[in-house]
Design a protein that fits this description.
Largest sheet: 9 strands, antiparallel
Number of helices: 8
Distance between the termini: 52 Å
Number of domains: 1
Amino acid sequence: MSYEAEPGTRGLDLAGDPLPVWPAAPSQPIGLSPLRRHGSVRRTMTLEATWPQGLRGPTSIAGRCRDAWTGDPALPPQVLAEDVLDAQAHGRTIAALTAHPERPALSSLEGAKPGGKFRALLNEALPDEREGGTPLYLMLDDLAGATLVSRWAWSRWFPNWSTAPTAEGRQAHAAAMLGVCTGLRPGSSGIIDQAAEVLGQNSTDVGPLRHPDDPEGWHPFTDLTGEVQFRRARRIDAWREGDVIHVETHFQDSGNTREGGQRRALHEYLLTARADAASGLVTHIEGRAGTLPYPECPGALANLRFLIGTPLTALRSTVLQMLRRTNGCTHLNDVVRSLAEVPAMLARAAPKEKRPS
């Protein structure tokens, strides 16, 4: 089905009701990560993009993702799994990939362009990573969004940034983006902005992710000054209470600024969900937008309720089928899809739960 036939293209949710449109793009930063809770497993991930040779050179992406168990919040967490990824991209084409611990099969992904076909190649080349819900799998899957959005960081350094140097190029860019998501549906302020001489995307100053009273709550990452840096960050907290799995996840795309100090975020969501521990079926899911570029963007939140009853482990595929293009937000979809690994995260934590920390 083309985007023209989708309810989101007409400004409707999957039930045919009007999507909400905010009076202005949201600018309500999520803020600090909460303190780690007893009996929880926390996954943190960052993909940090830089351009050592300037904008026309390759993109260097440094990734790190860690699963850590908290028995006693007053003590450092116990690392359950951790992966490090280094990627080089020319445009959106992957030129080189290495990981620690090593995965020789990664070389088969070099030359591919992250996106739908890349994910199929990924699943074929490294099936155990998806099945095991590994930290590496999340980073590799996230390369699609990170390579697409990362160049936005340059607009924080050059205020007159545009998508193309000519009007014809900007119109072509807008045509290519038309119908990609609910924020870029026909007639939206977002699609109009994509053709503008200077981008008017909303962004918001944001503070640190790491809580000062819980420095071990995140793995190490960098806040660069003196060079352009983009960072995609994720935090997923999961824990059990009786027969219920609880999840809270925070997603943020941000860039540094020429002036230094606070970062600016372009995309930010906070999502909470519950699932039945026995069946793994989602019983509750809701989210809020922290920062998004256009007032139409948070309308995608209205379709989250249609995921109730979906197995957590099926979210990666179900979201791509149900909330594609104008029925969803690319970034919100990736937030929800990342919850598919929650059962694997909790399974790694299970031995810790059975003995004193």
